[in-house]
Amino acid sequence: MAFDPSQRARQTVYQDTVINYFTKEKGQALTVSDDQAFCTQLRLTLSRELGVTEAGAITQFPNPAQMVRCLNELPPDHSSPLLFLERVLNGQDQSLLVKKLRQTFPNIKIIILTTEVPRERLLLFHELGADNVIAKPVSANTLIEKMAFTLKPQSRIGQAIDLARSLLQQKKYAAAQDACAKILALKPGSAAAYLLLGDTYRETGDFTKARTAYETAASSAELYLAPLQRLAELYEATGDKTRLKECLERLDELSPLNVDRKVSLGSVNLDLGNTEEAEEYFSKAMVQMQRDALEGISALSGRIADIYTERDPEKAEKYIRTSLEVKEKFLSRDDIALFNRLGLSLRRQGRWQDAVTEYRRALKLAPDDANLYYNLAMALAEGRAFPQAKAHMLKALEYNPQLPQTGATIAFNCGAVFLQNDDRSRAAAFFRQALEQNPDLRSAQEGLARAAG
């Protein structure tokens, strides 16, 4: 890979931001995570990559309650803590905790940790107060970059916006408006600048100009929720129920998992005399709350299944099936990982036909999922249904041609399926890919020899 001086310079700036936070500002990272691999990586990144070895730089908590107790005990002049919080803990989604933390500790910096990135759920976290999201696994450089951007704006525009926000908090409204004007001169159409401009007008009681600024911000960045949220607050304060309803509907369309907003939509529709629409939104709120509760039960069952996976595949199967059953009405492609885990558990019991049944069931939810086709091919190969295995492996490669590059074992398995069908040239190509990733993989060496024989 070619050396990129600009990238190296940016990385140095990111490193300096994080080092400064922990050393000069006496900052503190708090982690609430059951992922020991991530916690270890965070500690090593700070100590080895950045030389941050200050005592108390990182504190790990087994549960949110202890973390909240720690936040309550911090002195008022303490630097804003940097919190790393798992999206799901012990089967429970942490969105409500994020909301409470933002309300109680407005200056805390919150980074959500997740292994997958469901867009609607992450939008909800941002809306409720999360500052950033890390999708695991994550490299040391990306981890440093995420911390830097969470702690402090890293661009000229970002720093100017930070200054304008600071002036607004100090109630220096004229100066804040001047700062916003300078931002717009640097970046015409900046949604963040128009948002802050709207805030200054709202604070000074000029609701007409505030509304214009918020509407401009909303039109400049369609997926930026904050301007619409401000407009909703403005319409509620001025008693404009019709516009409030329209604004809440736009927000609900962009971020549909917010239960409180559905209740607000029900309430405003009731005020407007739309009783049927009101009841519809109240029903949607109840369904969403039920779905969130079932999600927690499902996640807990899945967690127990993970514990049993290596020790007792039958019990692992039982808990994975429980996880799927409780979500039966709400199953979607986001649940494909559960089906893959169930299939693996069944294959470990020698029940390849049952695994095939579950993979095919999952394909109805995600007909273009390459990993499902790969796992289906492997199950069929285990049952010696070699022609069918080859057909499904070809399908997997059609949907993801880079699949063999994701691991030497996967490349080897692709080669093995084709060798079992006497497709020697194609098998050899996959065995070579496996050896490129792991030159010492004996099974790939032997497979390549057989393919050439």
Structural write-up:
By secondary structure, the protein is mainly alpha-helical. Among the domains are: 9-151, Rossmann fold; 156-255, Serine Threonine Protein Phosphatase 5, Tetratricopeptide repeat (Alpha Horseshoe), CATH 1.25.40. It contains 22 helices and 7 strands. It has helices spanning 5-23, 36-49, 64-73, 95-104, 119-128, 140-151, 156-169, 173-186, 191-203, 207-220, 225-238, 241-254, 259-271, 275-308, 313-326, 336-348, 352-363, 370-382, 386-399, 408-420, 424-437, 442-452, and strands at 29-32, 58-61, 82-86, 88-89, 92-93, 109-114, 132-135. Strand 4 and strand 5 form a beta hairpin. Helix 9 (191-203) runs parallel beside helix 11 and helix 12 runs antiparallel to helix 13 (259-271). The radius of gyration is 26 Å and the shape is globular. The mean pLDDT is 91.
CATH topology of the domain at 9-151: Rossmann fold
Q: What structural class should be given to the helix and strand makeup?
A: mainly alpha
Major beta sheet, specifics? 5 strands, parallel
Roughly how many Å apart are the termini?
Answer: 37 Å
CATH architectural grouping of the domain at 9-151: 3-Layer(aba) Sandwich
Strand order in space, largest sheet:
2-1-3-6-7
Order of helices and strands: HEHEHEEEHEHEHHHHHHHHHHHHHHHHH
CATH class category of the domain at 9-151: Alpha Beta
Which shape, going by the Cα principal axes? globular
Number of strands: 7
Provide the residue-averaged pLDDT: 91
The number of distinct helices, counting runs of at least 4 residues, comes to 22
Helix content: 55-70%
